[in-house]
Amino acid sequence: MKTKVTFLKRVALLLLLSTLNPQLPTAHAQGTAFTYQGRLNDGATPANGTYDLRSQLNDAATGGNQWGQALTNSAVTVSNGLFTVTLDFGDKSFDGTAYWLEMAARTNGESGFTTLSQRRQLFPAPYAIFSTTAGEARAVAASNILGVLSVAQLPPPQGNGAGLTNLPASKLIGLNLTRG
Q1: Which of 99, 40, 109 minimizes the C-alpha distance to 68?
Q2: Which of 51, 63, 64, 87 has the fewest CB atoms within 10 Å distance of its CB?
Q3: How many helices (H) and strands (E) does the chain have?
Q4: What is the pTM of this model?
Q5: Which H or E run includes 24?
């Protein structure tokens, strides 16, 4: 009888913990923006000054098709040829498809862009945003979780159990809680 009482206390503690602390940790996926660092030459020398930079995704190194809208970063400071821009093509762009980044530049305020000589393939670092479609752990069905959660893995109790109601002992049968 003592074993059954201990077992019921452990189960009640587990249920109490799950009802008194409804704040589940939330995993936030990163945004869809990423930084791109490049080098811009003006003829044979590194560029210096302020430039507008246009970026677009393409599905091939040459030719191919443009994906989505082109982005323009205005008034980008270029120093000794080096620049950094933030690009955000949205969450529908990076689904595992191979893309090449095409860039064009113009002196700030000029009318036409000059396409830079070659496209750069984007590699997996920006693709980490693909995980935004993976959902949250809260969406996993209990039947897909394997293993036993020991009492030692539970957080310490909080509250006094006042919110615990309708706990029939018949629903506690079959739970395997072990102290480990």
Answers
A1: 99
A2: 63
A3: 1, 9
A4: 0.55
A5: none
* Beta bridge partners of residue 121, listed in sequence order: 100
Task: Decide if 106 contacts 114 (C-beta within 8 A).
Answer: yes
Structure tokens at 106: 């113009």
pLDDT digits (tens, 9 = 90+) for 52-64: 999 999 999 999 9
CA 32/CA 133 separation, integer angstroms: 12
pLDDT tens string 4-29: 545 556 655 555 545 554 554 444 45
Which residues lie below 8 Å from residue 22, measured CB to CB, with a gap of 6+? none
Instruction: Write out residues in the chain with pLDDT < 50, as ranges.
Output: 5, 17, 21, 24-28, 126-127, 175, 180
Give the count of beta carbons closer than 10 Å to the beta carbon of residue 19.
14
Structure tokens at 44: 């044979």
